[in-house]
Design goal:
Blueprint (H helix, E strand, L loop, with lengths): L11 H8 L19 H7 L4 H6 L1 H15 L3 E3 L6 H8 L1 E3 L3 E3 L5 H6 L5 H4 L1 H13 L5 E7 L1 H8 L10 H19 L6 E5 L8 H18 L4 E4 L5 H8 L6 E4 L5 H5 L5 E6 L9 H16 L9 E5 L9 H14 L2
Parallel strand pairs: 1-4, 4-5, 5-6, 6-7, 7-8, 8-9
Antiparallel strand pairs: 2-3
Length: 338
């Protein structure tokens, strides 16, 4: 199987983890690492709305780079939102602070959209990625992302009783828009693209296989070894199905999985295994105790057994997370795991 991802190697630790090359120190990045816990982001939010931060490429670049500068993560992830494809369809998205749609999803939207217009619509995201890559340090990797079609549909039908009958017509449309979104993001030199599919954890294993897996597999086949996938609290059966997709590159595992035991049983690189709830512990002694326990667990496995591991959380950074804890997490991973 072809393992090369990019002609350029940006962050060597991230590259090695994705290639499943043995190394002592794992790369570190976190979902929502640019977010409400971070003073840099809080200061920008005093001046700009969330939507402005997403839609203005210069601002999106500034938000994305903030945690790289302050915490020295190994990879930056595009600051944007998964719901813009629904806005493109005509649902008129705004945030206050969470997502609000002025219009309900309708059959008319699904029938009359023009996929060729999406390129122009999403240019702000494309320009953001280009600016980030230009301004990001050359030893840092860059990650793009989209939402999964099931997750987008879930958001679309909130408070929208008529949309429950649109599943069979909406999913193919959402998939087509997401295919285009992914194609556009790969026009920039990203190291990896994540599919964030939080709502897929609410599907039965059988529905996951029928409705989610084909999209993941098709994207991974088109962009081999460049796609990662995340759903919350992934079940053993769903994880087993993902492992069958040979061109898929990365899966995020929660704390309920034995990540290091799993690494040797899959071609996938695995990310996660520290609880984002633990990262919110406000008492420093208590947090250091939890962190030391975690590090001791990691130290039980040698570097060969940790091959393919990306140190991270089981979910995104919680808004209540003290910045000091993020600094300590990174410090402990880089200095104590040998």
């Amino acid at each position: 199987m072809e393992l090369e991802i990019l002609s350029n190697i940006y962050n060597e630790r991230f590259h090695n983890a994705l290639q499943k090359k043995e190394q002592i120190t794992p790369p570190i990045w976190m979902m929502r690492q640019a977010g409400r816990y971070h003073k840099h982001y809080q200061n920008l939010k005093k001046k700009y709305t969330f939507e402005q931060l997403c839609r203005n490429p210069e601002l999106a670049c500034e938000v994305t780079l903030g945690p790289i500068k302050d915490f020295d993560f190994d990879a930056a992830i595009l600051f944007s939102d998964i719901l813009f494809p629904l806005d493109f369809l005509g649902m008129k998205l705004s945030f206050s602070p969470g997502p609000i749609f002025e219009n309900n999803l309708s059959q008319q939207m699904l029938s009359e959209y023009n996929i060729e217009e999406f390129q122009n619509y999403i240019q702000f995201q494309n320009k953001s990625l280009q600016l980030i890559r230009e301004n990001l340090a050359k030893d840092k990797s860059l990650i793009g992302f989209v939402g999964g079609p099931i997750t987008l549909y879930h958001f679309a039908i909130r408070d929208n009783p008529i949309a429950d009958n649109l599943f069979s017509s909406a999913i193919p449309v959402l998939e087509e828009i997401l295919y285009k979104n992914i194609e556009i993001q790969f026009q920039s030199e990203i190291d990896l693209l994540m599919i964030f599919d939080t709502e897929a954890n609410n599907l039965s294993d059988e529905d996951f296989i029928q409705f989610s897996l084909p999209f993941i597999e098709q994207v991974a086949n088109k962009y081999p070894n460049q796609i990662g996938y995340f759903t919350k609290n992934i079940s053993p059966k769903k994880f087993q199905e993902l492992k069958k997709i040979s061109p898929l590159k990365l899966t995020v595992l929660g704390t309920q999985h034995h990540l290091f035991q799993e690494l040797s049983q899959t071609h996938l690189s695995l990310q996660g295994n520290f609880s984002n709830d633990l990262l919110t512990i406000s008492d420093q002694d208590d947090f250091k105790s939890a962190l030391n326990e975690y590090v001791s667990h990691c130290q039980n496995f040698d570097s060969k057994e940790r091959t393919g591991w990306i140190a991270s959380l089981d979910h995104g950074v919680n808004k209540m997370t003290p910045e000091t804890n993020v600094h300590l997490f990174i410090e402990y991973i880089r200095t104590k795991i040998t």
